[in-house]
Amino acid sequence: MTAREIILALPTRLKQDEAGDQSGVFQFKLEGETGGEFTVTVADGKCDVQEGLQGEPSCVITALATDFEDAELGRTNKQMAVMMGKIKISNLGAMLKFIGMFKDIEAA
Hints:
Elements: H1 3-8, H2 10-13, H3 16-19, E1 24-31, E2 36-43, E3 46-51, E4 59-64, H4 65-72, H5 78-83, E5 87-89, H6 92-100
Parallel strand pairs: 1-4
Antiparallel strand pairs: 1-2, 2-3, 4-5
């Protein structure tokens, strides 16, 4: 799976029970051939993904598309990727809530 495919598939991985009262706008800036810029909006128990950057983000995630793919597909540890600066997150608290609202790719 490419970074773009991972982001576009987020609505299918949303945990309805976890996302019910959560909301936020998350911008992903994934550099490289398999990435792109995306806005993921979670509100009212729904997830919407748009290509491009829109709205005022709760959190901005910046990475090389390949590093993002490695973290999402379990080839590298997500926490280590963040600690090593391979994945940059502007609002860790918002990102932790975001992560909890989605099933892992293996479980999807």
